[in-house]
Amino acid sequence: MTEESDVQMSDAQEESNELMPFMDTFYSLASNDLKERSFAASSMMSYLFLRKDYDDESTASTVKDGNYALTRLLNGLCSGRASARQGFASCLATFLRLSAKMGPEDGKTWIELMASAAKGGNDCSLYVRKTLKECTNYEGGAKNKKGGGKSRSDEREFRFGRLFGILAIVRSGTLDQASEKTLEEYISDLLGLYNHKSWLREPSIHALKEIFAFVAKDGDMEFFSLLVQKTMVSFLTFEKKSSRPWTAEKIALYLHLQTICMDNKCDLPKCLNYAVLTVDHFDKDMGGDTFKNILRDTSTTIYPKVHIVWKSLWLYLATQENGEYKLRDDVIVGSDSPKDILEAIVNEVIVGTLLGEEIEGEGFVNSTPGRRALALSLVRQLFAFHLPAEMIYNTVLRKQIVSNLFVNTFQKSMKGNSSNLKPMAIEVLEYILNRLCGSDNLNLVDHRFQTSKAFLRGNQNFDSVTKTDTISILLGLDATNTQLDSRGKGELYEILWEKHVNFLMGEILEKMLQEEDSSLEAVKYVDVLFAFAKRMFRAGNAVEVESNFRRILSFFMVGAFVDYSSFKDRDERANDDNAELHAIVKIFKMEKSIRYLVKVDAQLYTESEEISSSIFIESVDSLKELKSSIAIKNNEMDQKSRALTSLIALGSSFTLHLLHPGEAEADDDAFVEEDSITEDITEMLTDLSSVIESICTSDTAEEQKYLNTFSEICVGVLGSSIGGGNSNPSSIRGGGSKIIRDSLQTAWVATLAYATDSNIASLNADVMTTLLQSVCSQRVLEQGEESPSDEEMSEDDDEDDENSNISFPSNEVDDSDEGEDEISDAEMKSDNSTDQNIELDPSKLENLLIESSDDDDSVNANMLEHHEGADKALAQLIKLKQEARKAGRDEKEKVELSNRLRCMTLLEAIFSSSKRTSLLPNQIVLMTILPLLRSRTELSKSLASGGDISKKGLSKEKKSMLDKLTSLLESKISKSHLDGNANIDACQVVAEQVLIELGRVQEAEHCKCCSSLLVLLVKAISKQKDETVNFAKAIYEKTVVEWSTKKNSKLQSVVFDDLVTKCESIAKAVLTTPLITSSQEGRNTFLRSESFRILSNLYKTTKTAEEATDPHIDILKANIDNFAKGLEFALLDDEMTKAKRAKEIIKCGEKLLKFVSLYGDPSSLNCVKESCLKVISSSESPAIKSAAKKLEEDIENAIKISQAKKEEEIREVEAEVKSPPTSSKKKGKKKKKGKKKK
Question: Which ranges are annotated Basic residues under compositional bias (predicted)?
């Protein structure tokens, strides 16, 4: 805060010219309100020095008031009330400055007149010094019991007053009038304050710095050197075993004095010839502690304030212009350059002491929040330097600094971190971004690039971990930079992005080629490169991104098929068969063109590549012809072109999969596998070409078939080793399977979107059967025989055009092969039985084989005896065979589950969008329900049995599959938009099977799935009116009975909650009566309470027109009396009136009362009112009594209101009856008379 801020008058005050009374200003100077202090100071200055005319009388009065004001101001410095020191010190500085410059017309200044009047002579500075010393005299000793002296608190206040007084005098600018002796006295006072208490050291040194800076301001360096040498010799002399050890404050003053000499290019005084700040000095003993530890301990200064030593240190190393530091070429003492010293500060102080020691598994220890806060402040200050770009990466943002100060701060992983440094870290990041990205200066491109490199080195997911856009803003990929051309940043980002791409590619290769395993870091950099490519392509509408985009694509293509792990020992294997490829990798590492590497890899194609290309070329040509005929609107492709483009991309990924770079395995089976893959890919390319041709052609019949073919391709790919189905894929294909899966998913979604948009093709039973067979197990598919027959699935006569047969996929065989299949099935059963016979208990088997043969009567003399060792070996061999077969079955099941998981994405894509309603006829949705639900039941029971606990991999696969099925059934299929005209018989069969599945597993999530599917079946026939209600009754009435009466029932109340929530009107017609019964006859209090809760939701009224016209509301009206009796019995039941049950019942009564008030007679609730009175008298819970009393009063009021309405209606009827019939005739006569007048 400066003194100007406290003396500036507001415009309103100046216009009104209403000044504060002179004597009141002293009290207001201590106010905490800045505006009040400013007004008080300006009023005082106006009263004393800003009058228009001065005569002898007014001059004498001003001099008298000035002496009084000076004394009061100096005394106010010793007050600890509110903001007294700030207000009085700033006002004192202004008072001295104005009094030294202004005066009456006789030529003397006011301060000279005041000094003469006070008999202080003509030396104004001496007069001020004397007055300050008198008003802030702290040399009275401690107060004793007999009185006299000053207390310790008073002494502290007076010392502070002396300090603030000296600072005010320095800032007033009047020290140029002071004599050498006066300056020496001020310096002596400050040194005394420094030595008095440690908490006075920093402000005392700050005042000394200002005094010496003021002395050197006039350029008289000879006087400056003389004053320093005369006053500072004993204080600044360096002695290793000195009684006055060096402190951070003393170092700050020493560096400040050396900086003044350096800026004024003068010789150093003798006492300043010592080189305090050098590279080798940080570990040196400074009389009490090492230099770096002295700097470390400045962390006790609370942020945002930073210790004074750091400002002195930065000004010693650099010059400051417009808030920016520029490193000096050299320093005045020592041979180390400022750059080397700055690096030593970062290494020795920030990393070496402030961050603590990094221990693996424990993070950074021996650090404190205060030290880390200081480190953050220093990093922020270092970014104010105009440093070389490389120094940011190598020094300022070292990996330890980024990890500890930013990543760990946001992750809150620092042990013992009791303070929250996150806001401070965010502030530092914002400062860095404003410093580097605040302008379009091309000179800062390298700085932005090196900063982003440093942050990514600390953590590849820096933006996501810190939840900021730091990397995005540094690279120009934030949301505000979408229009780069208008902001003139095209050239800047073109250079920046090229550097960033080169860096990421180099890091990926470097990590993959390191001897230690760094593949995880390489994968993270791959993710960064991929995310950057996507955002660059979107944001670079005015920047040339094509070259970088092509380089990234080429890099990913090569990286997907080249196994770089084989090049780890490239120096030792320089003479092998892949020497050329090793050389290419080295060339690429030197940032040569990636295209050359692609060209070399292309030479390693197999002959099948030519075959596949010849098959695929026709589709490519047809796509080119199609592009010229398709109209592109708003720079967006239509659905057909999107589908064709994605299919072409899928074909390209098939073709790329035929690459065989790297070293082939010396195994005949591997080559056989590769030949098989080649044949499969060629066949898939042929089928894919037919799909593309079907879409390109205008033949409707062909277009209706392409989904069948394409679904078979998708299932075949995802279930084979091409799509990653093999548990041990060939290493030479690298990530090719991932590329194919991603391309296939994109193509499948685009093809479905085209089918929806075109309204030509739709999903038929063949497509859905193919998909369900890929997702469901063999055992589940065989249960399809229980599905309804074709006759039950037929639609009504008015829907003959639609094929309504719902068939559930099963693996049935043709009649012609029946005998052969029976034989094979018999053989399979025989094999299975053999396996089961072999699987004996190992302990029993061993006991059987080594059975004792000592009894001669039981052993035939001609029988061969068992050898004990051979028998044990045989038992062990059989045991190993059993374990091998079990492991084989588990591995086979795991692979099968993995394949099913990958195929799940195909079904999820179909049901994920509400726009695909046209693709999903009723029978297609219905035929998916049972196979998927049975699969979920099977997996849930398998996991619940606990047999897979020891098989972690298999158990994990089953849980993933279970979660996928649950999400698909509950969140997607159950939300399908059906037309409401599905076949009732078919829905009835499916509903019965769903209820069976519901009773097989006791699990909340399973019950939710089944409940959602039952509601879907009700909605499927929702437009068939009365039939819908009968259908729902057939399902839910028996369900309510089972839920409320059977002890071993696995049903839960969510089944009814879903119906009430999603089909409220139907729920009123179906659930009201059975729930009222269950509320009275339920087998326990919980079920009865749940019945009341669901009933209260049914009777909940919304007072809308739609509710008033609900055809099923009459059912609620008809059951009012039964519902009221149920509430009456519940309130009289001791178990039901306990606190946890009674609240629900009373709430239910409140909702029933609201309904009755609108649609019934409140007097029907008299029985409930009487029950409430009994609860009030018998219950021990105050809350229950209060709720029951409120319900009783509400019922009483409702009855009174109802009776009043009835009485009013009776009076109106009686009035109409008693009124004379002639009134209407008279009215008629009046009308006739009126007509005549007209």
Answer: 1224-1238
